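Retry 2 of 3 after timeout on previous attempt. Resubmitting structure tokens to design endpoint.
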């Protein structure tokens, strides 16, 4: 069977995750500063061989879902059912109009799936029609009875731990799910079990021990510690920018349009706050400065909105496998007054950079009527950025 060119994904995210403890459904909790479902979906949304990601969510979670996966490409969510099995069927039915060749079914509570596992899933289903990722059992397994006494010790050499994404020919697994629903069978623990019940031979392929399912509070604690250890290279950069006033009726400050009696004299929109932040991030990366990446001699940046510069700097961090830990800007000016707009600016920086607002600080000070800022000839800004990178970066 030749490798199909149309692979879709059902991302199952309708569960309540009660064993994970307080904090709401586990797929919407953050780990390493990123929602669990965002991590899980991103791997599929960015995979070159996946054309559609079909999330299945609880309708009550619509707002949380939209916020958690902002920026990722996906199909309109399908409504989940009372069981995981019912939710998967809802996702398959939603995909039917696209008629994919292969479908991967993945639990949103497995946020660490890698591109290599996804590729192996597609290849395996292309060859066999039904396949699941597995990892070897390293501990000795005991079978116990109702009393808790050991009844048997199976040979662990033949035991495997099943993971997701489980991969199938789309038409075959859809028919198996429909048949199970029609016959009232709702007791299957995974999609491979339904495939086996339907008479399919399920192959296996190499999984990944890091592709674990988050189930208990201890899982979250352990994975937070693991992620933190991977980002042990903590760096801080600083930035400074200044722009003089000219004719105009507003200034852009930290991504916010602020009414003013003057405007900035600048090649771009002159946003000193964002420009200083960009330099701080690039400094932490030891990656030049804003002028080397966006030369003022280049006509295409004439009047450009500075939010794209900040997004670019953040992307440079992401490309290195890093995270932004903190962003801080200090505005130095007599007017306009920054205090009333402080939280609006914080929110805008957080929105542009994709970090939580709790990691963004905006401050303001005057120069006591001294110097060019004191004479209200312009505005200056200083900034600092703290980022975390892998030591290998």
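Retry 2 succeeded. Sequence:
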């Amino acid at each position: 069977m030749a490798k199909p060119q149309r692979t879709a994904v059902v991302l199952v995210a309708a569960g309540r995750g009660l064993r994970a403890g307080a904090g709401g459904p586990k797929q919407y909790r953050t780990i390493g500063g990123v929602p669990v479902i965002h991590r899980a979906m991103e791997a599929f949304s960015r995979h070159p061989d996946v054309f559609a990601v079909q999330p299945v969510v609880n309708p009550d979670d619509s707002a949380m879902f939209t916020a958690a996966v902002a920026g990722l490409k996906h199909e309109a969510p399908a409504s989940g059912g009372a069981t995981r099995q019912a939710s998967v069927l809802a996702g398959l039915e939603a995909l039917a109009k696209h008629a994919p060749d292969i479908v991967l079914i993945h639990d949103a509570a497995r946020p660490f799936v890698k591109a290599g596992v996804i590729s192996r899933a597609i290849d395996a289903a292309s060859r066999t029609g039904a396949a699941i990722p597995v990892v070897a059992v390293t501990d000795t397994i005991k079978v116990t009875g109702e009393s808790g006494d050991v009844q048997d010790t199976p040979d662990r050499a033949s035991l495997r731990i099943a993971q997701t994404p489980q991969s199938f020919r789309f038409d075959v697994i859809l028919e198996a799910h429909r048949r199970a629903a029609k016959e009232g069978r709702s007791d299957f623990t995974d999609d491979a079990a339904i495939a086996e019940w339907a008479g399919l031979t399920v192959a296996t392929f190499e999984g990944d021990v890091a592709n674990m399912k988050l189930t208990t509070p201890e899982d979250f604690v352990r994975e937070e510690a693991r992620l933190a250890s991977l980002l042990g290279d903590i760096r801080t950069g600083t930035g400074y920018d200044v722009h003089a006033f000219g004719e105009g009726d507003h200034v852009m400050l930290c991504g916010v349009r602020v009414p003013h009696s003057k405007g900035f004299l600048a090649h771009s929109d002159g946003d000193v706050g964002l420009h200083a932040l960009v330099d701080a991030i690039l400094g932490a990366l030891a990656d030049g400065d804003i002028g080397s990446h966006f030369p003022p001699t280049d006509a295409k940046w004439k009047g450009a909105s500075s939010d794209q510069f900040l997004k670019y700097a953040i992307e440079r961090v992401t490309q290195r496998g890093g995270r932004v830990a903190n962003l801080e800007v200090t505005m130095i000016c007599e007017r306009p007054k920054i205090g009333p707009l402080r939280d609006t600016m914080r929110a805008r920086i957080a929105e542009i950079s994709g970090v939580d607002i709790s990691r963004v600080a905006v401050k303001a000070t005057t120069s006591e009527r001294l110097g060019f800022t004191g004479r209200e000839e312009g505005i200056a800004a200083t900034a600092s950025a703290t980022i975390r990178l892998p030591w290998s970066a």
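Attempt log closed. The radius of gyration is 26 Å.
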